[in-house]
Write a structure and sequence with these properties.
Helix content is about 25%, strand content about 30%. The protein is α/β, with parallel strands linked by helices and about 150 residues long. It has one domain: 6-pyruvoyl tetrahydropterin synthase/QueD (Tetrahydropterin Synthase, Chain A, 2-Layer Sandwich), CATH 3.30.479. The two termini are about 10 Å apart. Bound molecules: zinc ion (ZN).
Length: about 150
């Protein structure tokens, strides 16, 4: 299968996290300016010759701002963070998820945006990958594994 792709980035969204199982400094609450680079794919372009019209992606920015901007991301099983959030509720915009590593965030946001993309743009366009960057140093990517039956390689 051949396909077109295009990418759209959302940068400098600040939020905090902590990784309770990390043996080093990452177990302390700290923040980053995060960036999200979405890659979209399709086999047939729209009437403008686009994979997806960037002016109709407002819902992605809205989702990121409503859920992650200035939030505190913590793992669902992180009892210490949960206790802190419960006790000092006014100091946190909590966002619990399975894993708040960059990889875990990429997976979570990918699966949160995927149904919204379908809702706004139908079946023609699909989400291929999401790269999440902590500041401008570290990045993790979550992507669809190409189907083995004649799908694209790589
Ligand atoms: Zn971090």
């Amino acid at each position: 299968m051949n396909m077109f792709t295009c990418s759209k980035s959302y940068s400098d969204i600040p939020f905090a996290h902590r990784q309770p199982h990390h043996s080093g400094q990452c177990s302390f609450i700290h923040g980053h300016n995060w960036s999200f680079r979405f890659t979209f794919g399709c086999q047939e372009l729209d009437e403008s010759g686009f994979v997806v019209d960037f002016s109709n992606l407002r819902f992605i920015r809205d989702w990121l701002m409503e859920n992650l901007d200035h939030a505190f991301l913590h793992n669902l099983d992180d009892a210490v963070s949960q206790k802190m959030v419960d006790q000092f509720r006014e100091a946190f915009r909590p966002y619990p998820l399975e894993s708040c590593s960059a990889e875990g965030i990429a997976q979570h946001v990918f699966h949160s945006i995927e149904p919204l993309l379908k809702e706004h743009h139908g079946e023609r366009v699909f989400l291929v990958a999401l790269e999440v960057c902590e500041d401008d140093k570290n990045a993790a990517k979550y992507r669809k594994v190409p189907s083995s039956s004649g799908g694209p390689s790589g």
